[in-house]
Amino acid sequence: MRSDDGGSTKQRDQAYRSFTRHLLASDIRPGQFVSQRELVALTQMPLGAIRELVPRLEAEGLITTIPQRGMQIAPIDYSLVRDAYQFRLILEKEAIRHFTTTASDEAIAAIRDSHEAILKRVEAEGTTADIVNDAQGVDWGFHDLLIESLGNEIVTSTYRVNSLKIRLIRQELIRIDGHVVPVMHEHLGIIAEIEKRDADAGAAALERHIIGARQRALGMP
Q: Hey, where are the domains in the chain?
């Protein structure tokens, strides 16, 4: 019995990872309707694993079951953008205060180096597709690191789901492509406050950054 339970959990987790990977790859899109059998074909996981996966996706707000129509991937709308960015701001403001007072000088220096390296590459090569992808990784990595510094698995797991929604919003509305240099400079401004060990100023700079991203997602100047 234990072996079956373990196998079922493993398949459900594999199905979840496959679903989110395809979602971020735009193989399925926000607002799209899908059936369980279509998810079987997409994820290459058995129907039983998909049936067990659906309640988790519903609980996380990634899909909604609509009677007589099927399952709908969460659409990108005003409410999702507002709620996702507000939740992100609440968690990250707490995280940056903790990170500012606990991170080592070496860790902070490494973060600065990764951002400056992107800017140097842009100056030398322009905004190529590879640089955009690497910049996106540096961007996400910085915010993820702040959250992970808390060492709180409940916060990390809930942030991870919200981060998935943020990334979907970015893909649909505000890809980093045209914002590489401004985003890197905004991050460097936040990093400068972290280097000063000024938690209040760091939180304020982070808040301006996240509010700016939310405004871009909503099409506001």
A: 2-73, 78-217
| pLDDT tens by residue, 116-148 | 999 999 999 999 989 999 999 999 999 999 999
Do 213 and 85 form a contact (C-beta atoms < 8 A)? yes
- CATH topology for 78-217 is Four Helix Bundle (Hemerythrin (Met), subunit A) (1.20.120)
Give me the sheet containing 70-73, strands edge to edge.
Answer: 33-34, 70-73, 63-66
Rounded Cα distance, 38 and 150, in Å? 38
The end-to-end CA distance of the chain, in Å, is 58
Sign of CA dihedral 64, 66, 67, 71: negative
* CATH classification number, 2-73, choose in 1.10.10.10, 1.20.1740.10, 1.10.260.40, 3.40.50.720: 1.10.10.10
Coil, strand or helix at 71? strand
Q: Which of 101, 216, 220, 118 is nearest to 170 (CA)?
A: 216
Phi, psi (degrees; rounded to nearest 5) at 123? -65, -35
What does the DSSP 8-state code read for residue 151? -
> Which residue, among 155, 140, 152, 146, has the nearest Cα to 101 in the 3D structure?
146
Instruction: Give the pLDDT confidence of 164-209 residue by residue, as tens digits.
Output: 999 888 877 665 567 899 999 999 999 999 999 999 999 999 999 9
